[in-house]
Amino acid sequence: SCVHNDEVISQQRGNVTMKLLREQATVCCYAFECSSFLTNPITYGYMDGFDSAVQCVTVLYWVCDPQMIARGKNASDLFPAVVKNVACKNIEVKKLVYVYLVRYAEEQQDLALLSISTFQRGLKDPNQLIRASALRVLSSIRVTIIVPIMMLAIKEAASDMSPYVRKTAAHAIPKLYSLDPEQKDCLIEVIEKLLADKTTLVAGSVVMAFEEVCPERIDLIHKNYRKLCNLLIDVEEWGQVVIINMLTRYARTQFLNPNMNVSTTEATAIVKRKPYVMDPDHRLLLRNTKPLLQSRNAAVVMAVAQLYFHLAPKAEVGVIAKALVRLMRSHSEVQYVVLQNVATMSIKRRGMFEPYLKSFYIRSTDPTQIKVLKLEVLTNLANETNISTILREFQTYIKSNDKDFVAATIQAIGRCATNIGEVRDTCLNGLVQLLSNRDELVVAESVVVIKKLLQMQPEQHSDIIKHMAKLTDNIQVPMARASILWLIGEYCEHVPKIAPDVLRKMAKTFTNEEDIVKLQIINLAAKLYLTNSKQTKLLTQYVLNLAKYDQNYDIRDRARFIRQLIVPTDKSGALSKYAKKLFLALKPAPVLESPFKDRDHFQLGSLSHLLNAKAGGYQVLPDWPEAAPDPSVRNVEVKESVQTYPLHPPASDTASGSESGSGSEESGSGSESEESNEESESASEEDEEEEGKKKKKNVEKIKARKPVPESESDSQPNTIASVQVFDTICKPAWLYMQFLLNPPLPVSVPQTIIPSGNLKTYELLHRITGEGLSVEYCFSRQPFSPDPHMVAVKIQFTNSATSEAKSLHVEDAKLQSGMRIKEFPEIEVLPAGETISVVMGIDFCDSTQAANFQLCTHTRKFFVSIQPPVGELMMPIFMTENEFKKEQGQLMGMNEITEKLTLEEKCQGEHAVVQRVTTAANLSRVPCGSDKECRFAGKTVTSGSLVLVSVVTKEDGAAQLTVNCEKMVIGTMLVKDIHQALTQ
Amino acid sequence: MQLPAKMIHSLFLVNSSGDIFLEKHWKSVVSRSVCDYFFEAQERASEPENVPPVIPTPHHYLISVLRHRIYFVAVIQSEVPPLFVIEFLHRVVDTFQDYFGVCTEAAIKDNVVVVYELLEEMLDNGFPLATESNILKELIKPPTILRTVVNTITGSTNVGEQLPTGQLSVVPWRRTGVKYTNNEAYFDVVEEIDAIIDKSGSTITAEIQGVIDACVKLTGMPDLTLSFMNPRLLDDVSFHPCVRFKRWEAERILSFIPPDGNFRLLSYHVSCQNLVAIPVYVKHNITFREGSSQGRFELTLGPKQTMGKGLEAVLISSQLPRGVLNTNLNPSQGTYNFDPVTKLLSWDVGKINPQKLPSLKGSMSLQAGASKPDENPTINIQFKIQQSALSGLKVNRLDMYGEKYKPFKGIKYMTKAGKFQVRT
């Protein structure tokens, strides 16, 4: 109890100090306290005193807090004390030490090196998470001396077994690059290696590294292009953005402009071009990015939208509009960015957004910057058909309290009026009405816009000009005054009586006007002098004299220039003859343009586009090439050729008669597995009655067709529960289990030896659904030679119809991304009553997702799907007992799943256990000294992750099942399947 | 040589009075004086939400979001998609909210250690690392009152002792080893109706924005499928990454392994105007007479097309013109309030009883001598309709595969007003 008391006291003390520390952290004695706290807990057995963990964390937090640093409390003198904690077991302490280390390492290089060994040890840890975090921190320490160590660590991690560690390696690359750009070449090698990685976890991070280190090395992408396209949908969202942006650039260098023909039809109609055919890889990119428009992440949606805008044929770009409009429902910052991009797009592709016109209507609660952008879009979308609706909307906006917005609306009306001739008069009238608005800003803005509109057809609008002339008495906004004066000067012939009067008034107020107004008064005076010198000569001279002594030299300058030009003197040169022509020339009407015009030379969605200026590190979006570069660079070397495809000798079964031409079309895994399809009556007994009947019928059919060779082993009834086939067509297949006693063979053994025939057969297409064609499949458990990462699936067609089936083939595979199918070669003819077997390869990507595809005959198409039991996703490997133990030791923790079970009566005994496990999963037995334990090993087909299974039997049928697998989902499912196999 | 580093360099949190109360740097430290450019922009902006989200400065770019009256200002040095940063910042705010219940300055200051730990995990070298809430919660346990007490007593901390596994699995959004005694899955179908109604009561634009929020507490690795009676209604959808897109494309069925806990499964959009029934109508008569210092104000609300469901939590707000000095109004029910400084009128109506329609009538006093305001105020309406999704969307069934137990399933429907405005 004494100890207990001590603990309580020290704990209380800890809490009090913690509080004190938090409150008094700003007090100057802070640094001293910190150092004592930091060293004490460690030297005095920090490990067993839990209260000190809290102290440690608190202190460390304050040490790392940038606010302390901002207040001049540089905590770098605590470095030695802090860094000692790096070896601490408490994760929170550890993490904070990392934060501190990364922050101060640059200042305390020598001391930082002390901690390096800890990380180096961490890099070798059997736990992948520890390896990853060690690399993460090590690479964040900005100390040049350790560059070689970092380089080495990155290289090693890049070939680590765990994809998570490889991802961390990819993250470390830009860090090392910014620390020492000299390492670029070495880093590119690592990037190249990681780009070839097949896991989604790595893809985003390595492309990020690529973009930072060597975005110019587009050649590195070729071989990985298709893979990146296929993985895209499963990459985490931030990685998706980076990959899509990079692929946009890539596609611009490698493919031809899909709109080439459209844009050049008129210009180069004479020059006959080759008809454009889209590169299938270009199509692949468009197809695989499209679903991401449905992402919840706005950045992903924007990335796809810009990809479509820059790469898709015109007819297909439309799909992005809906998604972009959806984003406008998001936070106002998202809206702001999206609207900027929509504004640019809507100039080029107006039709795309027209159906969503109303989504851009403005609400009084929108922030002004959003309102103005929406207005921009509405203006861009205006055309003859919708202009009346848009103008009606604009009328509401003009009444708004938000004056900046009203001004923008008036500008927008002006733009609509210039773009659409039909409504010019309507707009003009509307704007003229605004001239009597009470708000001066509104009037001023209207004046400026009217001025621009009037320039288009001044003759018809002298009354408007008169109206505006009157405004000079009231309106004070300089820009508006200047505009009015310019108008009167320009069209003084239309208002001959008023113009001199305006000049008279202006001459009176000249000295008090703003500079732009003064310049326009001079301008007006000059023009009147030229057209109506009788009335205005004196006024003009008066104005020019005032201007001569103005403070602004521009105005003085202008006055001098104009006097020389218009007032004839003996000295005046040849120019004054042309004065009238100079001043009263017909001026082209201004074009009111969108500020977003031509902004699409920047990649949309980029920062540079938003700012309309090139930001640092911006990669220019290249123009389409004139001629497409060689597309074959993207071909990946796979040993695939139709001839070599089925490596097995033609099966000696009934199907051989149907072989047509090429014997290679026919393949099978030999007669043994054929036999395994046969059935003993007992199999259907446990099935549901109805199901059973059907099956019996089928079975009888098979039997009738082909005599059954008696199988030597006992057949076991089995339930269908372990097989889930999600396809609608697939009825639960009738299952047969025949146990042959020989254990499966390791892969290293040549494949001519065929593994045991205990294969389950599943139904792919029922005879009735298939109109006489029935299809079954089984996992032949043989290596699929064209591609070792595929699972071989043997498919058996039986034509029980009266006519022959022609051209059986696979079409339109709908696969989860990453999954691949190697189709079997087309079967040209399957005569009535015949059976034929072929092998196809499916890369399930180590998942039990079904592969969906269409099975086609010359007349029909059937949707079918193949879903593998988890045990078929692996292949056996050979291992010694020691190797097994060693590997098992590496896959501890969350990679290990253990379950206790009671063996079913018939299953007690080593023999039966081996039998059932190898039936449930494609594993090979590992020799073992004890007869109480059975061990099995295999690796997953796609990624080659180890799968280790051990079953330890105890008394009374109790047993313990252990599965070690890096892929935890596979492990979990496998435990379930084996558990079932052993207990039922 | 310092190369321009991509992505997020630093983060500053600025409160409404313009103080930086937290900063975090992922690379070298950027002086907080960089925020002066932000403050300049803030001064120029008339309203807090008018600060441009992207501000260029001589050496950096500032990208900011405003949430809960806190500006989250990210400092970046070179080209990066602005939405990337904005989306990330919002994710940070969502995470804080998830962890602390609210995202206020006080909450952030109280949990400053957790905040730093979270930020450290969410970005690595400025690039997003772990943003899934399920993974973060494995790394850093959210603080709860109970845990705070326990931590103080036992001296343990918020950092998970177990190494996280979610990042490694093929379902990165779901943590492993989930166990519940009561297995439940709840789905809330919430629809918001956005509309602009014009003076005469006709609909200018109306659309429905819906979400399905889920709270799934199921043991193990359940694989769920959710099907709708009328999936064709959904015009445009966006999914949580867990939803199998191809299955949706082919069969219009949502098939997914859910994250553990709360998450947004789906958001959707119904835009076909004919489908959007407007559930409320407003009769209004707001007039200002020229020269008079009085204005009339009359407002009556009534239900319309609500499919028999009652309108609840009705709240009216309106920004009255600047010239209005005060109001003298009588609500037939509920309470009303007028702030003479901000000119904001709000009327908390409560439930609408179709037999006795609520109204707000009376007069407004205007500034003497001032001219008649140009614009009549816009009326913003908020309301709720329980147990009904306005679009008519109905969940057909929810099935679970992959686990043996029978979960408890619940589905709730609700309709709310989104940005619902009536122009007068």
UniProtKB/TrEMBL annotation, chain A:
<dbReference type="GO" id="GO:0006886">
    <property type="term" value="P:intracellular protein transport"/>
</dbReference>
<dbReference type="InterPro" id="IPR056314">
    <property type="entry name" value="AP3B1/2_C"/>
</dbReference>
<keyword id="KW-0968">Cytoplasmic vesicle</keyword>
<feature type="compositionally biased region" description="Low complexity">
    <location>
        <begin position="656"/>
        <end position="671"/>
    </location>
</feature>
<keyword id="KW-0813">Transport</keyword>
<feature type="compositionally biased region" description="Basic residues">
    <location>
        <begin position="694"/>
        <end position="706"/>
    </location>
</feature>
<keyword id="KW-0472">Membrane</keyword>
<feature type="region of interest" description="Disordered">
    <location>
        <begin position="643"/>
        <end position="717"/>
    </location>
</feature>
<comment type="function">
    <text>Subunit of non-clathrin- and clathrin-associated adaptor protein complex 3 (AP-3) that plays a role in protein sorting in the late-Golgi/trans-Golgi network (TGN) and/or endosomes. The AP complexes mediate both the recruitment of clathrin to membranes and the recognition of sorting signals within the cytosolic tails of transmembrane cargo molecules. AP-3 appears to be involved in the sorting of a subset of transmembrane proteins targeted to lysosomes and lysosome-related organelles.</text>
</comment>
<protein>
    <recommendedName>
        <fullName>AP-3 complex subunit beta</fullName>
    </recommendedName>
</protein>
<dbReference type="InterPro" id="IPR026740">
    <property type="entry name" value="AP3_beta"/>
</dbReference>
<keyword id="KW-0597">Phosphoprotein</keyword>
<dbReference type="Pfam" id="PF14796">
    <property type="entry name" value="AP3B1_C"/>
</dbReference>
<feature type="compositionally biased region" description="Acidic residues">
    <location>
        <begin position="672"/>
        <end position="690"/>
    </location>
</feature>
<dbReference type="Pfam" id="PF24080">
    <property type="entry name" value="AP3B1_C_2"/>
</dbReference>
<keyword id="KW-0333">Golgi apparatus</keyword>
<feature type="domain" description="AP-3 complex subunit beta C-terminal">
    <location>
        <begin position="713"/>
        <end position="849"/>
    </location>
</feature>
<comment type="similarity">
    <text>Belongs to the adaptor complexes large subunit family.</text>
</comment>
<dbReference type="GO" id="GO:0016192">
    <property type="term" value="P:vesicle-mediated transport"/>
</dbReference>
<dbReference type="InterPro" id="IPR029390">
    <property type="entry name" value="AP3B_C"/>
</dbReference>
<dbReference type="InterPro" id="IPR016024">
    <property type="entry name" value="ARM-type_fold"/>
</dbReference>
<dbReference type="GO" id="GO:0005794">
    <property type="term" value="C:Golgi apparatus"/>
</dbReference>
UniProtKB/TrEMBL annotation, chain B:
<keyword id="KW-0653">Protein transport</keyword>
<dbReference type="GO" id="GO:0006886">
    <property type="term" value="P:intracellular protein transport"/>
</dbReference>
<feature type="domain" description="MHD">
    <location>
        <begin position="182"/>
        <end position="423"/>
    </location>
</feature>
<dbReference type="Pfam" id="PF00928">
    <property type="entry name" value="Adap_comp_sub"/>
</dbReference>
<dbReference type="GO" id="GO:0030659">
    <property type="term" value="C:cytoplasmic vesicle membrane"/>
</dbReference>
<dbReference type="InterPro" id="IPR011012">
    <property type="entry name" value="Longin-like_dom_sf"/>
</dbReference>
<dbReference type="InterPro" id="IPR001392">
    <property type="entry name" value="Clathrin_mu"/>
</dbReference>
<keyword id="KW-0472">Membrane</keyword>
<keyword id="KW-0968">Cytoplasmic vesicle</keyword>
<dbReference type="InterPro" id="IPR022775">
    <property type="entry name" value="AP_mu_sigma_su"/>
</dbReference>
<dbReference type="InterPro" id="IPR050431">
    <property type="entry name" value="Adaptor_comp_med_subunit"/>
</dbReference>
<dbReference type="InterPro" id="IPR028565">
    <property type="entry name" value="MHD"/>
</dbReference>
<dbReference type="InterPro" id="IPR018240">
    <property type="entry name" value="Clathrin_mu_CS"/>
</dbReference>
<dbReference type="GO" id="GO:0030131">
    <property type="term" value="C:clathrin adaptor complex"/>
</dbReference>
<keyword id="KW-0813">Transport</keyword>
<protein>
    <recommendedName>
        <fullName>AP-3 complex subunit mu-2</fullName>
    </recommendedName>
</protein>
<comment type="similarity">
    <text>Belongs to the adaptor complexes medium subunit family.</text>
</comment>
<dbReference type="InterPro" id="IPR036168">
    <property type="entry name" value="AP2_Mu_C_sf"/>
</dbReference>
<keyword id="KW-0333">Golgi apparatus</keyword>
<dbReference type="GO" id="GO:0016192">
    <property type="term" value="P:vesicle-mediated transport"/>
</dbReference>
<dbReference type="GO" id="GO:0005794">
    <property type="term" value="C:Golgi apparatus"/>
</dbReference>
<dbReference type="Pfam" id="PF01217">
    <property type="entry name" value="Clat_adaptor_s"/>
</dbReference>
